Amino acid sequence: MATASHQRQRSRRRPGARFSAFGLLRQGLTRADWPRVWRHRDLAGSYDAVIVGGGVHGLATAYYLAKNHGMHNIAVLEKSYLGSGGSGRNTAIIRSNYLTPEGVRFYDRSVRLYEELACDLNFNVMFSQRGHLTLAHNDSSLRTMRWRAEVNSLEGVDSRVIDATEVARLVPQLDMSEHAHHPILGGLYHPPGGIIRHDAVVWGYARAADALGVHLHQGTELTGIDVVDGAVRGVQTNRGTISTPVVVNCTAGWASVIADMAGVGLPITTFPLQAAVTEPVRPFLDTVVVSGSLHVYVSQTARGELVFGAAVDPFPSYSMRGSLQFTESVAGHVLELMPALSQLRMLRQWAGLCDMTPDFSPVMGITPVDGFYVDVGWGTYGFKAAPVAGETMAELIATGKTPDMIAGFDLARFADGRLVGERGAAAVGH
Amino acid sequence: MLISCPLCGPRDATEFRYVDERRQRPDPEQASPQQWRDYLYVRANPSGPARELWLHRSGCRQYLFVDRHTLTNEVQTAALARTEGTR
Amino acid sequence: MTSSHRLPPQPGEVIDRAQRFTFRWNGRPYQAYAGDTIASALAASGVRVLSRSLKYHRPRGLLSADFNDPNCMVTADGEPNVRAAHRLVSPGMSVSSQDTWPSLRFDVKAANQLVGRFLGPGFYYKTFMRPQRLWPAYDKVLGRFSHGGYAPTAPDVDRYDQRYAHPDVLVAGGGPAGMAAAVAAADAGARVLLVDEEHHLGGHLRWADAEGLEILRELRAAVQAAGIEVMTDSVVTGRYDGNWVSVLQRSVPGVRERLVKARAKHMIVAPGLIDRPYVVGGNDLPGVMLSTAVRRLVNLYAVKPGERAVVLTANTAGDAVAADLGRAGVDVVRVLDARQDEDVVRIVGRSAVRAVECSDGAVVDCDLVVTAIGWTAPLTLATVSGGRAEFRAEAARFVPVGLPDDVSAVGGIVGDGSTDQLMEHATAVGREAARRASHRAVALAAGVPHARVTAPADTPAVAIPDLRPAAHPMLSLGRTDGIVDFSEDVSAKDLKSAVREGYDSIELAKRYTTATMGPSQGKLEGVNSIAAVAAATGAGLAETGTTTGRPPYVPVSLGALAGRSHQLLRRSPLQGWHDSHGAAPLYAGSWVRPDHYGDPAAEVQAVRDAVGIIDVTPLGKFDLRGPDVPDLLELLYINKWRKLGVGSVRYGVMCAEDGVVLDDGVTGRLGPEHYLMTTTSSGAEATYDWMERWLQTERRQWRVHVTPVTSNYASINVAGPRSRELLARLTDLDLAPDAFRYMQVRTGAVAGIADCVVWRIGFTGELSFEVHVPAGHGLHVWKALLATGSDLGIRPFGIEAQRILRLEKGHLIVGQDTDGLTQAYGAGLDWAVKLDKPDFAGKPELVWQQMRDDYLRLVGLQPVDGAVVPPEASQIVEDGTRIVGRITSSRMSPTLGHAVCLGLLAPHLSSAGTTVTVRLPGGGSIQARVMPELAHVDPEGVRLRG
Amino acid sequence: MASLADCTSMPKVLVRASPDLGDSLGVHFGLSTRDSSGALVVGYGYGEWLVLDAPDPVPDVIQRLEATPYDGLRSVIDVTHGHALLRLTGADTADLLSRLCPIDLSDDVTPNGAALRAPVGGLGVALVRDDVDGERSYLLVVDRSYAESLRDMLVDAGHEFGLAVAG
Ligand SMILES: Cc1cc2nc3c(=O)[nH]c(=O)nc-3n(C[C@H](O)[C@H](O)[C@H](O)COP(=O)(O)OP(=O)(O)OC[C@H]3O[C@@H](n4cnc5c(N)ncnc54)[C@H](O)[C@@H]3O)c2cc1C
Ligand SMILES: NC(=O)c1ccc[n+]([C@@H]2O[C@H](COP(=O)([O-])OP(=O)(O)OC[C@H]3O[C@@H](n4cnc5c(N)ncnc54)[C@H](O)[C@@H]3O)[C@@H](O)[C@H]2O)c1
Ligand SMILES: Cc1cc2nc3c(=O)[nH]c(=O)nc-3n(C[C@H](O)[C@H](O)[C@H](O)COP(=O)(O)O)c2cc1C
Ligand SMILES: [Zn+2]
């Protein structure tokens, strides 16, 4: 412990520790190493809170607990490397054009936090607000888009239905012919939406949480939760036991497994979600393009690859191997939208796990077990929610009061029959 | 992934539709809201052996009870739902 | 330009000197022979620089001279990212370098080299943060660091294709090991598919000595004799659950690329080994090549790769390459033997190799540096199959272990030995593969009722001779810093500094530096990346481990993955008529339907005033038979069915178990135990699954046969005040109002066609008859109706007119006027829900809903200003911004002359007479009044009962 | 060489009963046979038989069904109009179908007489191997609304085999 805090002191004071153009220049000239982004720590015997899952949600929750509420004696347990779950393998779409007013408000707060995140964390997360375009191929999707646009604008979110001409102007590669099987009638355009460097968000939160004294434990797997008289007492891990009154489940695809350790059942099913990238080509696509009817979305990263995603796999699984079927259908659908891309080559496909809920909304807050909190049910859309989820979960854990912003996402809503209707905006859009 | 349909033989998973976990419908007259909504929404979602209901959609159109490992996707057994346990 | 570097004919050459032609490189003409790759033809003309590197835009030349070569991505005839060292050049081909400006030789971005020290790994994470408003500009600048060619803009005229295959044994790799395994498997009776990425079978034997070439000839003959299906210029790209193997087949006549999807009973991986680059200063200069690259150039393409060569060798491949160079007339000025602790310290040069600094201090001038410092096993196919990569320190490479039963490995990927030893091992593995495949075939066929696959004699497993990697010194990172990942421009130093910064596992270091994330996906740079990370952490390579291998093994075109695009469209037998009569097509789910025939309002008018006909074939239709059908109907629908008499029909609504409205439709009783059910078009499939689910799982004792008959009938709705008059002219059925009442069904002949089912219902709100005609006669009846009704003012009408008509009548559309949370009471179906039934799907939820009053309700609405039609999805608000409902359907009613709507409204606003505020898209708002009924036209139902 | 013929107008009758009746009808799911009246009886599903080319008035198989003592439910439904029926004949037809259908059509797995339901080009199709005078031949039964789609796909896949289209 002594060495750890010593290190912390050093790293806080060390010149050049802050990232900036100037720091970069100095580092380049002196060729000195940058300080470590985060440190290895010994597992302490007790923490005020143990956060399970070193993805963006766990890390953001830890960061805001430390930063906003002064809770520093907390640990994040990650069975593999930081960001190895959905946070390291998602297609990084950020947007707030959801369907329900609760949803729109919630995601809008997240987008605003993301806009300031680079400065807040002193880590460039490269949030590229290049615009998000959902295509309408039939009247019913146009209708849902109008609905979304209306709710969005009532909530002050920039989102509007555009016609085919404007779609063609934004994305000239699209096949706009009327005789396409999925003709493009228009779209929902959301200028503040975009993509982000997902790994940078993870690393930035981790670095900032570490600097505030949070212990990040990679290679540390939760294996059991001790519940006595309906309250959390501690946890077991592959590296030893920890006593703690608070366990926060931030394990997304593995949420049910962790909740089961506390005896809590969840309305969640784990489905793989696959993605793929092509070889890089010169930049030509600067809008995120989504087609709900075709179950596909495309964006081009700063490196030039096209990133493809789709809807979740058709059956639940904890396997992340991926399927050929996915690549065939995603390629087919991309070419239906942009036929000129047939010579581009798919470079790599991968899969991640998604914790799907019946109403495409998260499950956040308290559970029947005292001290056991959930921040799960993030499905295919949770990356964009990390800042606001971390902020509100931290507030709940620190104050014991559920913030209004997330009151509707409570676990009890299922037993009460109060589902949130986000299916129409979240099924493929991410 | 292959599923051995008891009628058609082994076929690719894309021919089938995953329906749900295999579960018991509570008596609708007796069920409390909590029980009924557990049935509607809460899932075991195991990482490991799972008992599931599938439909051989592009084949014989029969519902199957499938025992599958959700980490390896290996199917242990697939039985006709309509006769399982009756013979 | 002439081929100044072409050697005299070589024994194993693959070029055809009889066919010589011209192609273009960056606009200038060059000569090539048939069989040349783009790169070999350019090398033969002395072209050394093929590309510029990603970050620093350093000049780059051939490195591995095969598909994986990171330095020779070019654009060929408009196709970006073509592998110049693999793609065969063709007459007139136009090839150009990528991402170089203004030219390959003078590239302004090479200036990045000067600031290189500031562009360390992840430099962009550390800057450009302030001021925040400038970030979009930075964002654009960073985009310039992307590499690659231009995405084509014109549609691709080439054909792509797919096919399935069912080999017993699929062999990935056609070197000596793969060929021997394939032959052995085929000899043992297996159907074998042998795939090789290169244009010819043979692997490394293609550049072997005379003895090796003789073995190759024999092997090729044996492959042919064994009846093996061979695919060259084809790659095994992936292996998925269930030995589902994807093969990308190129060089297929008439097809650019074909994806073969093989259900292999056994797969043998035989990809050989990859020559590993040496990481040392200057290792990316043009003129630094791997031994295998040089051997290819000399032996396959008869190209002299340089004039003065220095060879760094740690194995026999290095010795062999020195010999090749000697024969080719290259002056081998120095051979450094790593086994004798000789080493290259640094390679010097600016745009090409000029000299080598040797470990003994000598500086040797040269224009070619060849390295043979060790092998990398391409393990992706093995690891995606479930195997693991295990590091063998003594052999300085990873090997595959833990393969599943239906996958094996042969050849260099497993171990080393003489060609005989490799082939002996491969032969045994091939025989064993055939044995396992035959057992697998029996297991697979066991459940197939018609299969006649006989069990093979129970032979014992074939003994597999030992094959292990030979001892090899570990060479990877040299004494100076060099490039590890050529595609990504990542050096060993970059990786080490990333580790020191905290990205201290192989996965984090990969993501932070992007090493192994480029087109070769670690084939060349994987082990060197691991070595660099290990060097910085102090751990061994075994402990450091590999990154996760993923498909595809090599990048696959989207065209091949997509295959042919087929439009799967359902068409009614009348669709041809609609097409030829000006119908605007509407794609609704899987069906194409007539939206309208030009004037929907006039179509509406015809139905209200005279008679219209609409093709409603896509309506889901199910034939239900058996004594327990009433039980099924009682269970599925929220309303009651037991008392439905023969000859009657009834409208019903189905809910899911959560009480949410699922589907609606009309079901009629045709006979004592015979019913016909209709569902919505889009809900037909799901309803069928839903019914069968009950019958096959929960109510297995019920005697009911549900048979889908949607396509058995062409369904025509004849609607309007004169529909009876019209139909009477074509049928003997008694249509008199008392004889054939509203909500009744009759069976008989229409227009001479027997066995038509006619029911009197009224979705449009008019007197109407729905006629279900045996599909093959549908067109006849359709035409007969039009001809017979011409004097009555008949018009065909489409979906749009039907939507208006039903909205005027206040009939809801499930999924439009309801959403994923609308339970039956919310849809205004109070009258239908029968909670006194013992059980039906969703009942508990409806019991509870009925006790609440906190849900949106479907109501009829009319704007106060009847001229304004609020678009569907307009929100209904209170206090300016609080959403209290929305318009779900809206149209201008041609019948009433003002706008009519349906909407979902909060309970406190849903009583008749309330005025609500509807916000219009794009600003502004209007007032609308809640109507007493959903129906705007004829709420009493006089017309349809007429 | 391969040829494609449209046989949609051929009578088709769906018979449903207990699968146990397969013995008395002479055929079970997965196989097909010709009954004494010349009708092709296809074991089509769980307790389902599709009778193709049934002669008028009543094919032998249905008489036999009616004669079999059995107290369960039995249904006989005319589905002539509900399905399109295509016949694909020629030595190359297995190869041609391998472009569209994932089933192993080799002689040992799918011999003459085999009947199965499987995707063909993504459509649900009943496939019956029904060789004609020793020449490889397949019957494809598909929902009538998809007839054009299936035919287009077969014609497209048939290009390289010189597929001749009749009718
Ligand atoms: C392919 C794909 C594309 C996506 N695209 C988008 C998108 O465009 N936009 C968007 O907003 N969202 C997207 N998502 C969803 C998003 O990635 C997730 O919702 C989000 O990353 C969840 O973050 P998390 O921190 O909750 O979970 P994760 O990042 O999954 O972290 C959970 C962590 O818990 C760890 N863990 C599990 N069990 C244990 C244990 N017993 N002990 C210790 N640690 C454990 C795991 O190793 C993992 O690292 C996508 C997801 C995928 C898979
Ligand atoms: N390379 C040499 O110069 C050399 C010299 C002497 C001995 N050897 C040893 O002999 C070994 C035995 O030969 P071998 O038969 O194992 O290898 P090989 O290198 O001779 O042949 C492997 C073949 O597999 C092909 N291939 C690789 N991945 C593929 C894929 N995914 N799909 C299709 N094709 C693919 C390659 O194109 C190559 O032709 C060598 O690996 C090495 O150990 C090699
Ligand atoms: C937005 C995004 C872009 C990616 N781009 C690349 C890429 O250019 N090259 C690459 O090899 N992998 C790329 N990947 C995939 C990763 O290499 C990796 O497959 C993914 O993080 C999942 O991890 P795993 O494959 O190790 O399981 C990308 C992933 C994401 C989420
Ligand atoms: Zn089946």
Report on this model:
The complex is a heterotetramer of chains A (430), B (87), C (946) and D (167). By secondary structure, chain A is of the alpha/beta class. In chain A, 33% of the residues lie in helices and 22% in strands. Chain A has an eight-stranded mixed β-sheet with strand order 5-6-4-14-15-16-13-17. A six-stranded mixed β-sheet of chain A has the order 8-2-1-12-19-18, sandwiched between helices. In chain A, helix 3 runs parallel beside helix 7 and helix 4 crosses helix 10. Chain B contains one helix and six strands, in the order βββαβββ. Chain B has one helix at 33-41; strands spanning 2-5, 9-12, 17-21, 49-55, 63-69, 75-80. In chain B, strand 4 (49-55) and strand 5 form a beta hairpin. The two termini of chain B are 28 Å apart. In chain C, helix 3 runs parallel beside helix 4 (210-225), helix 3 packs across helix 8 and helix 5 (291-300) packs parallel to helix 6 (316-327). The radius of gyration of chain C is 38 Å and the shape is elongated. Chain D is of the alpha+beta class. Chain D has two domains: 2-6 and 82-166, Probable tRNA modification gtpase trme, domain 1 (Gyrase A, domain 2, 2-Layer Sandwich), CATH 3.30.1360.120; 12-78, Alpha-Beta Plaits. Chain D has four helices and eleven strands. In chain D, strand 4 (40-45) and strand 5 form a beta hairpin. Chain D starts with a strand and ends with a strand. At the A-C interface, helix 2, helix 4, helix 5, helix 7 and helix 9 of A face strand 6, helix 2, helix 9, helix 10 and strand 30 of C. Strand 17 (345-356) of chain A pairs antiparallel with strand 30 of chain C, so a sheet runs across the interface. The complex binds flavin-adenine dinucleotide, nicotinamide-adenine-dinucleotide, flavin mononucleotide and zinc ion (ZN). Flavin-adenine dinucleotide binds at residues 52-58, 77-80, 84-87, 89-93, 221-222, 250-254, 258, 273, 275, 309, 352, 354, 378, 380-384, 430 of chain A.
